[in-house]
Structure formats: structure tokens, C-alpha cells
Amino acid sequence: MQRTTINPWTWNEAFGYSQATVVEGSHQVMYIAGQTAIDADGNVVHAGDMAGQVGQALDNLETVLGAGGLTLADVVRLDVYTTDLDAYFPVR
User: Fold this and answer.
1) d(CA 69, CA 77)
2) Number of C-beta neighbours around residue 56 at 10 A
3) Which terminus in the chain has less CB density within 10 A, N or C?
4) Please, is 20 exposed, middle or buried when counting C-beta atoms within 10 Å of its C-beta (0-12, 13-18, 19+)?
5) CATH value at residue 35
6) Helix intervals (H) in the chain
7) What range defines the domain where residue 18 resides?
8) Is the pTM of this model over 0.70?
9) Stretch (H or E) spanning 29
10) How many CB atoms lie within 10 A of CB 65?
11) What pLDDT, in 10s, does the model give residues 50-73?
């Protein structure tokens, strides 16, 4: 089994954090770390703007996938975590 680390940015290296790992054996699987509203320099962006944060997280996901030769079409599972949906989508 072969493992390849994927890190399209360098900010995470100071934290010992890898964006993704590709594991190859009889098949290939990419395990991707959680993506957030962080820019390429490791700065938080879109504070207080949930749509902007989601957009940035998905852009980051696409960047990590692309660095491993994949696209969003290759994703088979995506978990989403939020702190307060009611603040952004109040019940009517």
C-alpha cells in the first residue's frame, strides 16, 4: 500500500496538518481533511457570512481534489458541520 500526502498550500505545515492523503493499493482512495473558510495563506475569510464560508470551503475542497487529480464528480461522501443553522435559516 502506498500513501501520498496532498498539500496544495503551505500554511498548514506549521501545524503538522495535511490536507489529504491518497492511499493506493488494489484501488485508490483520497481522504480529505475538513475544509473551512480559510484562504491560501491560512487566513479566515467571510466572517459572519455563511454563504461565503460555504463557498470558500467548497473552493478549498476543489483545490485539494485537483491537487490529487480528482474533481467534485469523484466525491462519494461529504459531511457538513455548522454551529447554528437557525441563525441563517430561521423557521417561517
Assistant:
1) 17
2) 19
3) C
4) buried
5) 3.30.1330.40
6) 50-67, 85-88
7) 2-88
8) yes
9) strand 28-32
10) 20
11) 889 989 999 999 999 999 999 999
Interatomic CA distance for residues 17 and 47, integer angstroms? 22
Q: Which of 64, 60, 58, 78 is nearest to 6 (CA)?
A: 64
Cell of 7: 498539500
Whether residue 4 has pLDDT greater than 80: yes
Cell 473558510: give the residue. 37
The count of structural domains within the chain is 1
3-class SS of residue 3:
strand
Residue tagged 467548497 (cell numbers): 58
Three cell numbers, residue 82 = 455548522
